[in-house]
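Researcher: Let's do a round of design. I'm pasting the structure tokens now; please hold your answer until I've finished.
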């Protein structure tokens, strides 16, 4: 068979033989190249996989790095409320907690001019019976106070109380803004030795308006006789001021004309009640020409046999008042000779006194 093919090959032209040789060589070369490439790729593949994995790891690490930087940025962006230097000491012989407010630093600017008018309010929770305030330091972000306040509290009662140091920005014409505060649970302080330290202020929420109770007052004015009658009718839901959860309330009525005190009257004391009924009337002679500028200040006190009487809350009615106090006065003037009764929510005494100091617009 091989011999039979030879004559055919012998009779093939040279160019055909050359073409066959070239094709065969090309096929061999392709086959060799493919084998070589496959071998090379096998050797490199793990490296590529490793690189990919490594890349993912690097990207992850970079991401983590960015996250950490973000966290750092957030920490840096945390609002600064400044810090306060204070002292605490306890006089065991006199049962006195002595609080020193020394100075503040790096307070935030609360006013348009890039400054603040800070002062510090000092009080104890939960009762808030006694509150102190430092003087206002005008236009100062690093104010020096150097003021001392004394709370007379038996040592046994201190553990359940919290001292609050609250920094405010004073505003002559509006509500004072809270800059920041420090709360110190007294059971966390060793009072065997004086404490003197700096602490960062934390964002102070506005002091919650404490519910002090309500009082019902009737007003009647007779223009022809120039006679103003104030009837203290009753009070309800008064704040408990005594240890037993009750109070011994009485009411003081002060009449002022253009800021000057004219007269004052008091009701009788009602023992052990938060919902006293008084129904006591007081009459004042006020000429018709002056009635527009009269202020009626009604304060509910808790009577104390041994110490000073504590104010539970206060109401301002008449000239310069706002809200219910102004509306009640206007209703009385619009209805001469007729008694006009109205319930008033009691406000903290210091808040009303502060409002009275402001110029009436």
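Researcher: That's everything. Go ahead.
Model: Designed sequence:
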């Amino acid at each position: 068979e091989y011999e039979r093919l030879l004559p055919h090959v012998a009779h093939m032209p040279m160019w055909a033989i050359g073409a066959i040789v070239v094709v065969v060589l090309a096929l061999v070369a392709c086959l060799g190249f493919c084998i070589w490439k496959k071998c090379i790729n096998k050797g490199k593949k793990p490296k590529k996989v490793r690189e990919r994995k490594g890349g993912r790891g690097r990207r992850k690490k970079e991401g983590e790095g960015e996250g950490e930087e973000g966290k750092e940025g957030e920490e840096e962006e945390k609002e600064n409320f400044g810090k306060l230097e204070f002292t605490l000491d306890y006089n065991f012989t006199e049962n006195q907690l002595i609080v020193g407010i020394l100075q503040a630093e790096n307070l935030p600017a609360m006013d348009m001019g890039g400054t603040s008018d800070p002062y510090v309010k000092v009080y104890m929770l939960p009762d808030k019976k006694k509150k102190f305030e430092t003087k206002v330091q005008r236009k100062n972000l690093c104010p020096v106070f150097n003021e001392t306040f004394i709370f007379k509290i038996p040592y046994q009662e201190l553990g359940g109380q919290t001292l609050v140091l609250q920094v405010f920005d004073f505003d002559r014409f509006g509500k004072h803004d809270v800059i920041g505060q420090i709360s110190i649970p007294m059971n966390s302080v060793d009072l065997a030795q004086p404490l003197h330290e700096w602490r960062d202020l934390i964002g102070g929420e506005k002091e919650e308006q404490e519910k002090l109770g309500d009082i019902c007052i009737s007003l009647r004015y007779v223009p022809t006789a120039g006679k103003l009658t104030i009837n203290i009718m009753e009070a309800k839901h008064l704040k408990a001021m005594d240890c037993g959860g009750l109070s011994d309330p009485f009411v003081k009525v002060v009449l002022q004309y253009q800021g000057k005190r004219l007269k004052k009257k008091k009701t009788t004391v009602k023992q052990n009640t938060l919902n006293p009924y008084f129904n006591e009337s007081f009459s004042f002679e006020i000429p018709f020409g002056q009635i527009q500028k009269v202020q009626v200040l009604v304060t509910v006190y808790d009577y104390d046999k041994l110490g000073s009487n504590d104010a539970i809350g206060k109401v301002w009615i008449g000239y310069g008042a706002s809200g219910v106090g102004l509306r009640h006065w206007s209703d009385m003037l619009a209805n001469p000779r007729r008694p006009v009764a109205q319930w008033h929510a009691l406000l903290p005494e210091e808040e009303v006194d502060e409002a009275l100091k402001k110029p009436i617009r």
